[in-house]
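Page 37, top half.
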Amino acid sequence: MESLRAIFTETLGLSSNHFEEFLKELHLKTLKKKQYLIQEGSVCDFIAIVISGTLRSYVQNNDGEFNNDFYLENSFASAYTSFLTQMPTNCNIEALTDVELYYITHKQFHSLIEKDTNYLKLAKYISDNYFIRKCKRETSFLKNSAAERLEMIRKLYPEIEQKVPQYHIASYLGIKPESLSRIKLLTYINK
């Protein structure tokens, strides 16, 4: 929770009181590996903060599952479009490991904002992070090779290769696991 405190006090310039008030609203949730935080068709009524473990977000169609985000320790996890619109989500968020997280409900978060508009700084911070991650990924698909996309994911999610199976990383990159193996091998050879 120290990293969350730092976001409040150092990054956002909020007081320790804001942080303490926010903490009072949080609920603890644990997930076992392969359990879902949310499934397609549900309305997301929470924003979570991952304390330990790793989750993946994916969409599904007739061709299979396609990873579109990962949530590692100290990150905010939510089907965020659904959270904002209060409409059903088209994604699933699944635990890749046992996960411990805290969450705040949509209603609680908006109650905090109504009481003190300084919490809008936190809302903006969360929105900005989601927006930037999504834009980077979209742009990388339009501009970059698979090898460059791999470098991007390594920067975006440090230590991801130790925490997420290769086939999930390949899915996020839009390539087959065999292609990811070749890219890693070529990168290693060229060093």
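Page 37, bottom half:
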Amino acid sequence: MQIELAQLSGREGDIAYNLDRALTQIERSHDDTQLIVFPETHLTGFAEPSHVEDRALAIDGPELTALKEASRQRDLAIAIGFLERDAQRVFNTTVLITPEDGIALRYRKTHLWPDERELVTPGDRMVCGVWRGRRIGLLVCYDIEFPETARALAAMDTELIVITNGNMDPYGPVHRSTAIARALENQAFVAMTNRAGNGVDMTFAGESAIVDPLGQLVTELGRDEGVARATLDFSRRDVARRDYHYLDDRRIPLFGRLDELPDGQRHWLLN
């Protein structure tokens, strides 16, 4: 699988600008790119006090419609984050958009950073689905600091864990380290795109990366805006599991329960 990490900056509340940057990057992607990953809440910017509902987007709104059309035109999948409005609630959401299904996966961030806990609603499940023969799962930013989130995806046989990220100074090294750990301990690929630049009185750390199932870096970026491109060789997963298989060997159970949907999506429902 050919994948691109689009490590971009964004503007809080400037949805037209953020969408245009995403569409431009999609148009510039290589012809053989199959998946492009953007940062956490890239479309809307972060939630802030007094700026939640005014930034939140509907899942069937024009912004997502434009991205679905871009996905079809370029024949690639898109992982991108935004604040999602659903009735009276707002979620920190990341979607996987595919040419075949439009919004193929919707994941609502389950582990909220302290600053957003009074602003958005946490999700209640981990999600993954199959696209072109590969099972892909989604996480958002702070989720990666909890081993159980990636382990739930791995328990559903996820091969590629995609993380939209908005990690800031001074915590940049934390997510680089945890991306390696989550890949290694679950023997799966991890693709993490972080935000760059400044916003909401923070400096974002960049350092987007792809890590293989052996815990080895495939590619990484520095702190500035940029695009990383790599080929995922899924035979590395077989190599990682040749002599031992952490999921089979574990003795401590994972809490929650599995729900399998008719379309092949799997949800791990949280207690």
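Margin note: The chain has one domain: 2-269.
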